[in-house]
Write a structure and sequence with these properties.
Rossmann fold, alpha/beta, 225 residues, 4-stranded antiparallel β-sheet, 6-stranded mixed β-sheet
Length: 225
């Protein structure tokens, strides 16, 4: 039986302007539908840059990045097309949460819907369901300033999933949390990604986080191992 691929990278290279060396070059990577892959490596090797290239937040110099069941190459899209693809096919969980302080928890979760031109009011049941599934039932009206770091990251996970993306990108999703909360949030993230039948690429320095994923890849100056 053929297994579909939600992320396929071929011969990807990235060099910052004026830099003597590329951040990485000739990278090949595939993430299957429903697969959760951990990406580890030393600081400064380009893990976060790779995620940003995959999301179309930074331009790659060469190569292809095919995303979702339609295998659209985000490298070849213009900015409006990249934003549209992010709004439909990609969910992002950041280390620093990036929860907007002027929006309630429910409004933060709804942001990807709004970016995709979807009326969030028609999807309040989806938002409330996700709040419950991340352990925050009834937190919709709460303001970010009243939430703990673990609760903010739970909001970020719900936000990444609300538009049912094919691919979740997570950049050190437990890096700003204490060990106990980190374990709880990690278990929740993996559970929710699997429940939504999404694929995921998770950048982490934590060997524990990596070992909880389906596969571990190491990014080195020589490439992916």
């Amino acid at each position: 039986m053929r297994v579909s691929t939600m992320l396929s990278i071929a011969n990807l290279s990235k060099r910052h302007p004026g830099a003597a060396r590329p951040v990485f070059s000739g990278l090949d990577l595939a993430v299957a539908a429903g697969e959760i892959v951990a990406l580890i490596g030393e600081s400064g090797v380009g893990k976060s840059t790779l995620l940003n290239c995959i999301a179309g937040l930074e331009p790659a110099n060469t190569g292809t990045i095919l995303i979702g069941p339609q295998a659209r190459d985000i490298v070849r899209l213009d900015e409006a097309e990249r934003a549209a693809l992010r709004a439909t096919a990609i969910g992002f969980v950041f280390q620093a949460f990036h929860v907007l302080p002027t929006l309630t928890a429910a409004q933060n979760i709804a942001v990807p819907l709004l970016l995709g031109g979807i009326d969030a009011k028609q999807h309040m049941a989806r938002i409330e369901t996700l709040l419950a599934r991340v352990g925050l039932a009834g937190f919709g009206p709460r303001w970010p300033a009243t939430l703990s770091g673990g609760e903010l990251q739970r909001i970020a996970i719900a936000r990444a999933l609300v538009h049912r993306p094919a691919l979740i990108l997570a950049d050190e999703p437990t890096g700003n949390l204490d060990p106990r909360t980190a374990d709880e949030v990690l278990a929740l993230l993996l559970e929710r990604v699997r429940d939504e039948r999404a694929s995921a690429l998770i950048v982490t320095h934590s060997r524990h986080v990596a070992q909880s994923c389906d596969r571990i890849l190491t990014l080195t100056p020589e490439g992916l191992e």
